Amino acid sequence: MKRLFPILLFLASAAHAQAVDSTTRAKVAGSGAEPFAGALPNDIVNASGAVNPAAYKAIGNAYSSPAAITYRFGEPPTRTDVQTFPLRADVGQISHCGGGCKIAYQLGKESTAMSNNYVSTHGAAIGVPLAGSSVSDSVAWFQASAVDRNTWMQRPQVLWQAGKLLPSAMDGYYRDGVLSPNEAADLPIVADRCANSADSSCRVSIIGTQGSATRGATLFTIGNTTASNRASVQFPVGLVPTGISSTAGGELAVVSLWDTVNVKGKVAIVSLGATCEGCTLKGPRYDWWHGFIDSVHVGFWDQGNFIFMKIVGYVDLPDTMRAPTGIKVTTGMTPFDAVVHPVGKEVSSIGLLASPLAQNRSKFLPGGEFHATYAKGGVAVVISKSEKKAAFIDLGPYLRFTNGMFLNSEESNAETRNIGMAPDQWPYPIAAHPQSAPVLVKIVNLDEKPTGVATTVRSYWNKDDRERVPDTPYWRNTPRQPRAWIATQDGTLRIYSLGRYAAGPKPTTPDPADIAEVGRVTGLGAGVTGLSESKGLDQRPDALNTAVLFYRRAERQWGWVGFRNDGTGSVIRRMADSRVDPVAVAELDQYSTSGCMVAVADYSGASIKQYRCGIVRYSLPSSQTSFCPSDGPGCPTLTPNGEYAGGLSLPFRPFSVHSSNAP
């Protein structure tokens, strides 16, 4: 919050119900899980790499059990020779929030006499309840960082606006029967919040639940206190979500799935629709961060405060890839590609300036002023840890079909306004329009187990392939090749080109040859647990495209790989702390005030722990503030390599954490 200005696709059948043997499930769910006959220890495959159905079903149907957590993230850390970062102590507490709230700050001094550029970053986490199966004890939102009244807050804390860890949306989900407060099937097992630069359309997290033999897994959203619309959809029984990723413009989400009935891997295509905060699907709208104000455009760009979800189809993965464990999507676009700067007017966006869309379609067609502001294609990268494979799925056909429905004619545009879950309502099932079907382009065999996947955001094919030479009137070529990064358990980062599949704003004609391994970075260290996006390590320019964050649970460590313009890379920074069991690590958004921060999901410690990795520089110069001014040395960390920012205790053991700048 701030006060600043081809493979066949088909619809799923409901006949997926099949109970899992209770004895088998008990072995997996207990802390003393036993390996299955024919399966490797802590795995679901045998020595030949073939999936063991019993192990697959047991892990899949208890995806947050102790055995599944070990399968997903590796063994808990036992290393003791790890440094302990010093804690940055609290300086005082903000006094203006009212209601008796106490929000501690760690730098600066509260002042009401100076300009106040208020910015906050909110986080969300999910995990395993410390006791029982309370859904309310498995999800939380929190203030990850904030700048307010010349102070800096870096310790994770309960949101002062809410006063509690439980997101406000949860009461609505319980009331509407979307989730049940004490239903084990509704416990969350996977989450994602698309990563982009601060003040982007990645407003909310999408969370997937476990499901059961009688209740389908559910996707639902939680956001922050100023972007808290609710959206949800349910899968058929037997489909277990293992990974989620949404596009930067909020057009769609892709979900990797285990089909525990048929022992098969799938990817779901979920169309998304957003609207202004507090608005309804059919009701009136207002100017909310310059999004569309005429109607909800499901499947087209908007500001990411989702109110509608619909599963439009599935991609069947081949029998050699039954167990996908992660997925990432990129279109080659960022939300800022939709920002418009009208001459002599306030900064706006295509949503506000092109409302109503039905009367402004021509602006988005070739030759129109907004033609280069929305995605023309995209690619999803899927990994399977056990089967040592990666798959690349072309989403271009679906995006082109959706774009065409909105833009090609008055008649097709009118159809997009009949929104609903029925097959004859928008968005339409892929099976009814085969030309919209995503295409499985390539399966790649890996020589080690993949444990993390990430992608660049911008595309080589967009308008940002050159940059100005600092302090000169000259420009230089700076190609930003679209890439996928796949980390393997041995500590290698494989770099794949995505070429014209990450189309960006220009229509392209991709070729399977575009997707190829183009390099490797070694030396990350054995036991890499996962990857996440970098959002500005020590003010690194274009961090989302030039760096990636990795983490290693067993070593209590995380670090960054940095990339050069030629695509090669190396490890540029590491941090480790004795306090944490890091099953997930997320770098926080930075807005007008920089100060590199990471949030760590400390599984064994049942907490979020945060660390500062960079210098704090406030948005104002020294002529206007003495608080870490932008034109000075800033406020460094307590050690050259960082400091401990503090922790927030949770009623669950977290295995996922995400954050974004709150609007």
How many helices? The count is 8
What's the gyration radius in Å?
23 Å
Overall geometric form: globular
**Secondary structure category:** mainly beta
Task: Please identify, by name, the CATH architecture.
Answer: 7 Propeller
Strand adjacency order, main sheet: 3-6-5-4-35
Helix content: under 10%
Mean residue pLDDT: 89
Q: For the record, give the distance between the C-alpha atoms at the N and C termini, rounded to a whole number.
A: 4 Å
**CATH top level class name:** Mainly Beta
Number of strands: 35
CATH superfamily: YVTN repeat-like/Quinoprotein amine dehydrogenase
Largest sheet: 5 strands, antiparallel
User: Do you know the CATH topology?
Assistant: Methylamine Dehydrogenase, Chain H
Explain this structure.
The protein has a 5-stranded antiparallel beta sheet, with no helix packed on it. Strands 7-8-9-10 form a 4-stranded antiparallel beta sheet, with no helix packed on it. Strands 11-12-13-14 form a 4-stranded antiparallel beta sheet, with no helix packed on it. With 663 residues, it is mostly beta strands. The chain has one domain: Methylamine Dehydrogenase, Chain H, CATH 2.130.10. The protein has 8 helices and 35 strands. Strand 11 (239-246) and strand 12 form a beta hairpin. Helix content is 9%, strand content 31%. The longest helix has 12 residues, at 396-407.
Question: What are the key terms here?
Answer:
four-stranded antiparallel β-sheet, globular, 35 strands, 663 residues, mainly beta, disordered N terminus, 8 helices, five-stranded antiparallel β-sheet, Methylamine Dehydrogenase, Chain H
